[in-house]
Amino acid sequence: MLLVDDEPRLLSSLYELLRDRDYHLVTATCGSEALAHLHRMQFDLVLLDLRLPDMSGHEIMDVINEEEFDCDVIVMSGDVGIEAAIGALKRGAYDYLRKPYSREELLKTVENALQKRRLAVDNQCIAQRLENSEKMYRYLVDSSPDIIYTLNHEGNFTFINDRAYQLLGFTRDELIGKHYSILVHDEDLERARYVFNERRVDERASRNVELRLKCKSATGGADRTFNNTLMTISLNAIGMHVPDGPESKQNKREFFGTYGVARDITDRKRAEEMISYQAYHDILTDLPNRMLFKDRLGLAVIQAKRKLTELAVMFIDLDRFKLVNDTLGHVKGDELLQQAAARLKECLRKGDTLARQGGDEFTIVLPELRDRNDAKVIAEKFLEALQKPFDLDGHVVHISASIGIAVYPTDGESIDELLRHADIAMYQVKALGKNGHSFYHNSMLDMSHQKIALEQALRRALENNELEMYYQPQVDVATGRIIGAEGLMRWNHPQRGLLSAGEFLPFAEENGLMLPLSDWMLGALCRDLLLWNQAGGDNIRLSLNLSPQYLDRGDFFEKMRGALTRYGISPAQIEVEITENICIRNPQYAIEQLNKLCQLGVSVAIDDFGTGYSSLAYLHRFPIHTIKIDQSFVKEIHDENGHYPVILAIISIARGLGLHLIAEGVETEVQARYLQANGCTTMQGYLYHRPIALTSFVGVLQAQNQAQNQGQNVPPAPPMIAVQA
């Protein structure tokens, strides 16, 4: 508080009067001193005398107003003229006290001035908080990820935040005063009518109603989907009266308008649609998957039953797909499936359904057949379309298909029956050479049951010890001595007698029985080798055929090493025979496995060389010790003076790479002489020995050792001692 008076006695008494009131008091005796204090400090109240030696109080008030000092002024003056008071009040003085004034009058005026100032400060703070609150609310509303809006009772926008422009492309000015229907998708207008005119409050108000809103083409693009959460604003309305009608009750709660929050769920809806689509479609080919196919087949069966018509179900399996997949890799295999699916789709009629069952298998439902010939025509179109070459980034491949067809209701009335019978018909095509189609017939079911019976019998064969290893000797023709033998599996079938490997191993490959059969073979060979060695055959090498499935299994090496250690067999006595196709299934993995065997001391031979996908690169990369000439080439030898370039090339490759060479399937003297004359001196075949049981093989070894001890050449064993294969 600034006290200004040029009379020291009055100033001192004023100071004494106010200092006990907890005020911060500053005094001035002239105008210049008062202005100096005003420039230096902030005052709430100035008690100002009008008559000062250097300037008047009016002049000081003019300075206060010009420089906008935030303080109130109480003028104290001894002037009796009205002009002084009017001049002070015009300049904004809070009050005018005429000297002499009473003590109570002064204190009351000062307290009122300060109270007014306190109220003004409080009001200013409240106004500032309201302004800040409004700014924060506006910021939150405009920054909301949702569209926030209000409608009046007629459904016209009274407020909408900036999010509407960001999402829909409509400015606030374009929407305020307009009816909500300008934003709603035409197909959703009926539902929107109830939502946007919502009058209920609390839990009964509309929640999570989905609507599609229009976007401006220049900004928003496609229509967007919104989830609306609405509530109604209910106000205490002013009494509303209908002209010439009964008077309305005061304070009646009248419908005022609607407040709503619209959340953009377009991306969520798209994600849900994508998830739903992927649940019923194959991701690779974009065809219906097994689940959707069964659903459509079920509907087609119901319709066929109602209309008394036929329908066909096809089961398609791509021939040679596995070879392409193994040779070129899964990426190219996927491309082949996509191209094949596109070709199959082009052959369909309107209303037909093509689906991918999995792998390289497809299923098709053909509703409303006129007769079976319709299905036959489409199957032939499929075969024709698939026979054309496929270009996989420069790799030209050829495939075909095996197609089985089942017709409703002749071949089954349920979904599972039709699919199972079409599958059986497809396998019948495969058994007859592939690349064709066949309608299901009841006789096929008997064959299918025979396969199941064969699988069960083969599993029992393992349990009942019905399997046995036979051995075909490998002879050094220069000395006539047996230097090795190839182990061949036989099945002593309870009803069908002795079965060769070719009669049941291909079936075992297809039905997952190769792994247990190979485990059994490994143990049987080791046990038989112990008997070999006791008969003096410890310098004879055993060749065992290795299934690609067995090599692919990660624990093959450990099983081999464990068996050799358990039975005390020297690894150098074992040679593993692999086919050339193993080299192209997974070359790097095969190399790693075979290198482990070689480090163990086991040697490796390529069986049937020249019949698969021969590559000199494989011979360099793979740890190969032996090449076996396939019997299909040996059979071509009819003249020992003839020219057989394939055999000569194989012999030359083996000689050039320093590999051991064995000819398979040697049955005539002419074949033996030709091979020996051109450098192949190790042979196996009926000319020397048929595959024989272990006891017979041990007898041959004993006879060979006895002849050697007597210093005689060892003649080839006559065919009569061999057990028939």
Automatic annotation (TrEMBL):
Carrying 4-aspartylphosphate, the residues are 49
Q: Which residues form the GGDEF domain?
A: 309-442
Q: Which SUPFAM superfamilies match?
A: CheY-like, EAL domain-like, Nucleotide cyclase, PYP-like sensor domain (PAS domain)
* Name under which the protein is recorded: EAL domain-containing protein
Alphabetical UniProt keywords:
Phosphoprotein
Query: Domain EAL: where?
Result: 451-705
NCBIfam families hit by this protein? GGDEF, sensory_box
InterPro entries to which the protein is assigned, alphabetical: Biofilm_reg_signaling, CheY-like_superfamily, EAL_dom, EAL_sf, GGDEF_dom, Nucleotide_cyclase, PAS, PAS-like_dom_sf
Q: Where is the Response regulatory domain?
A: 1-114
| Record organism | Pseudoduganella flava
Query: Which residues are in the PAS domain?
Result: 133-204
The lineage is: Bacteria, Pseudomonadati, Pseudomonadota, Betaproteobacteria, Burkholderiales
